[in-house]
Amino acid sequence: MTAIVGLMLPGHATAIDLSELETEDLRLLYFDPQQTYLAPHVARSFHNSLRFQEEVLGWIPWEKTTVLLKDFSDYGNAAARAAPNNALLIDIAPISSTFETFTASERMYTLMNHELVHVATMDMWNHQDRRWRRFFGGKISPVAEHPESIFYSYLTAPRTAVPRWYLEGSAVFLETWMAGGLGRAQGAYDEMVFRAMVRDDAYFYDALGLVSEGTQIDFQVGVNAYLYGTRFMSYLALVYSPEQVLEWLQRGEDSERYYARQFARVFGKPLIDAWQDWIAWEHEFQRKNLESVRRFPTTPYRNLTADPLGSVSRAYVDPETRTMYGAFRYPGVVAHIGALSLETGAIRRLSDIKGPMLYRVSSVAFDPGGGTLFYTADNYAFRDVMAIDIETRKRRMLLKDARIGELVFNADDRSLWGVRHLNGYATLVRIPYPYEEWNQVYTWPYGETLYDMDLSPDGSLLSTSMGEINGNQSLRVFRIEDLLAGGSESIAKFDFGSATPEGFVFSPDGRYLYGSSYVTGVSNIFRYEIANGELEAVSNAESGFFRPVPLEDGRLIVFHFTGQGFLPALIDPQLLEDVSAINFLGNTIAREHPVVTEWQVGSPADVPLESMITHEGPYRLARELTLQGSYPVLEGYKDSVAFGWHFNFQDRIGFDNLDVTAAYSPDGALASDERAHVKLDYRHTNWNAGFRYNGADFYDLFGPTKRSRKGYAYTVGYQRALIYDTPRQLDFNADVTYYDGLETLPDFQNIDTAFDQLLSLQAGLYYKHPRASLGHVDDEKGVLWDLVASGDHVNGETIPKLRGAFDFGIALPLRHSSIWLR
Questions:
Q1: Following DSSP, what letter does each residue of 110-154 receive, concatenated?
Q2: Can you name the residues that pair with 338 across neighbouring β-strands?
Q3: CB-side exposure of 697: number of CA atoms within 13 Å?
Q4: Could you identify which of 156, 165, 182, 443 might form a hypothetical disulfide with 427, taking C-beta atoms 3.0 to 4.6 angstroms apart as the criterion?
Q5: What is the pTM of this model?
Q6: pLDDT in the model for residue 11
């Protein structure tokens, strides 16, 4: 859920077969038939949110918004842009709600509310912006080839030039009240983060530090933009008013173009001063919350490590070796499967994790009898199921791209159970030993998701947390035999409302389930008795306890939240009658400024979509290529300045792209046939074509290197990802270029040619990996191959890196018999 400049599909698309649904305000693109069932609901959710953006935020869309649905990740997400056009990119898979870091509601409803705020705030315009947009033929998206485009972008879409915390903070703040107060602006996780920071005297980033080190060195990385931005917006709404927050976000006729100057105009003080006011206010607000929690005795705990472990997965304890196993991700160390000694607190790294997640890191299961840990890799793509021997540290891939997570191990038959995400659905699956295939058990309807599963010690019961399409969350228990027979009815259920039942696991005797929830606003550990359905609190935490691991002696290992991440600790669970609640900032806003309670949008089901549809059919790339913007440019040609104009044509998503630049050098020192400059570049999925006439380049205005060349150049190229398994990638590139009228070699400005025509053929393999990246190295024999070993030091270990490239090219001067090999 982020704002982006461009929209891309993973890898190099070889074919695009999309269908579209259009209304006056929406162009929805989707894959048919896999996503056809979802398209009407997405369209209704879009229009449902659009009403709010227009009526409350005052947005008049400059153009129709394009929405692309895709299923290229096992967890849902979204991205938005407003330049060169309004577009959304949505992953339709279920969204991770770990620690309630995402709202417990229907995901398309929430995503549309959030992402359309992005589009609205970036697309906002007044008469000045309208004039520039008409002059340039659209909203300009900055490109490196023409740095002047940064200035033109600011003229046409000034509110794209804002920090990420501004974009995410405004989207989360408004999405919360659009959902009637259900959202992260008054979420328990956000409250816990700042409560823990105040308790631990943690450092608060200022507005500038947040966008630099605050999203790099902190264990929450980019999520800090959401946390800080949302909190600052909420503070402004409380201390000033929600209406002033809206005025800051809007682009009224008398508004300032620069967001910080607009802030000072609306709030009467510089943004940097208001930020410091918020930090002081936050400390006082959270001190009162800490006092509220301490009204009743808090649960004592003993830390098992000296330092927090950042993000953590579910953990398992081997009582014989006094070792805890899990997945860990903390700053400065590659995310890994590790073994933590309960005696010393030391962690032994077993294996790095490819593609870890934030917060949950990986889905982990444990076979104590076989000494095997199971975990998932590629967690943000198509998940692989992996296994590692804890003694030998030998790992192997069991199932590639299986899209299965939420792993649990059944000691009764050595099978693995998990949840598979595909086409927006969640499917319970069983992976029988020896884990070479998986079997479908039951697929739940769209909107019902399973997470945080566990199996009873005797293998007869399966517990799971489940989210429903209306946002309700519950803890459920199923009989394995019923599930294998095709049933889907639970034998026990506890409704948590909108609170998330987190990490519930069986006690060693199978009688209870222990887990956490923010029922009181603070994440505490609860005990659920399966036989009678009673739920009782067994902790009173200051910040929050999570992911309990029941021990044979009745104690629990828990992860408690600190300002630097999660820290494992030991507690003695005690049944409690009184657990303190806290005050939520969102509740305070609603109480003092009830206008936010009027911002709730209705149900998407009420949108009369059928009467709004103007077109349905296949998406045709050829007819979608339209002018997205044009602007004046400066370029360098040899030692002269060229003045020109650049035109950009794209389809609405950017699969097809055509750039045209025409320039002229008035320098009388140039020959008349060298004063005109033309450049065309066309890209269609894997193919590209180009044309140059006296090719010029902006960067030739500076420095000794010259890319400009006299004459004609015609290029046809092809690119394809032979391996796309991020971060590992192998690309094949090939191109053929014909030159005419050359004075110097195309790649060597200091070598004059004895010919004026040249045919160049090049092909290359380029490999990328965390421990390998490819470069282009000159070699006198013409075959370019470079293999360099180096190393990075992490925790005293040397991590090798490999760099290499293979690039073969041949150049044939057409009027001479010699052959150039390069």
A1: HHHHHHHHHHHHHH---HHHHHHHHHHTSPPPPBTTBTTHHHHHH
A2: 326, 349
A3: 14
A4: 443
A5: 0.91
A6: 47
Q: How far is CA 280 from CA 194, 208, 232, 544, 726, in A?
A: 12, 17, 12, 23, 43
**For residues 503-534, b (16+ Cβ closer than 10 Å) or e, as one string?**
bbbbbeeeebbbbbbbbbbbbbbbbbebeeee
> Considering just the CA atoms, what is the radius of gyration of the chain in Å?
29
Query: CA 449, CA 108: separation in Å to the nearest integer?
Result: 14
Task: Give the residues of the chain that fall short of pLDDT 70.
Answer: 1-15, 769-822
Where is 45: in which H helix or E strand? helix 39-55
Q: Among residues 110, 33, 67, 48, which one has the least CA distance to residue 609?
A: 48
Specify the residue for token string 């697309």: 123
Residues 667-681: pLDDT tens digits?
A: 999 999 999 999 999
pLDDT tens-digit readout, 253-268: 999 999 999 999 999 9
pLDDT of residue 80: 97
Burial of 201 (0-12, 13-18, 19+ CB in 10 A): exposed
Strands 556-562 and 565-571: antiparallel
Three-state DSSP at 280 gives helix
Which pLDDT score is estimated for 816? 40
Q: 277: part of which helix (H) or strand (E)?
A: helix 271-293
Contact 807, 778 (CB under 8 A): no
Judging by beta carbons within 10 Å of its beta carbon (0-12, 13-18, 19+), is residue 71 exposed, middle or buried?
A: buried
Judge residue 168's burial from the number of C-beta atoms within 10 Å of its C-beta, 0-12 exposed, 13-18 middle, 19 or more buried: buried
Q: Are the beta carbons of 392 and 440 closer than 8 angstroms?
A: no
Distant-in-sequence, close-in-space partners of 434: CB < 8 Å, separation ≥ 6: none
Spatial separation of the C-alpha atoms in residues 571 and 762, rounded to whole Å: 65
CB neighbours of 721 closer than 8 A, spacing ≥ 6? 11, 12, 729, 730, 731, 732
> DSSP letter at 61?
-
- Strand ranges, E, within 231-335: 302-303, 311-312, 316-318, 323-329
Q: Which residue has the tokens 């060298």?
A: 674
User: Environment class of residue 144 by beta-carbon count within 10 Å: exposed (0-12), middle (13-18) or buried (19+)?
Assistant: exposed
Quick check: helix, strand or coil at residue 290? helix
Q: 733: buried, middle or exposed (CB in 10 Å: 19+, 13-18, 0-12)?
A: middle
191 close to 589: Cβ distance less than 8 angstroms: no
b/e sequence 538-566, b meaning 16+ C-beta within 10 Å: bbbbbbbbbbbbbeeeeebbbbbbbbbbb
Q: How far apart are CA 508 and CA 514, in angstroms?
A: 11
| Gap between the Cα atoms of 438 and 104, Å rounded | 29
- Judge contact between 558 and 551, C-beta under 8 A: no
Distance CA 793, CA 229 (A): 35
Q: Are 601 and 113 in contact (CB under 8 A)?
A: yes
C-alpha distances (whole Å) from 657 to each of 434, 647, 649 are 48, 11, 6
**SS3 call for 90:** strand
Q: What is the pLDDT of residue 580?
A: 81
Please report the DSSP string for 191-205 in residue order.
HHHHHHHHHTTPPPP
Question: CA-CA distance, 694 to 675, in Å (whole number)?
Answer: 8
Q: Which DSSP category does 447 fall into?
A: T
Query: What would the two tokens of residue 675 be?
Result: 């004063």
Two tokens at 502?
A: 């987190």
> Identity (one letter) of the amino acid at 670?
L
Q: Which residue has the tokens 């849902």?
A: 76
CA-based end-to-end distance of the chain: 45
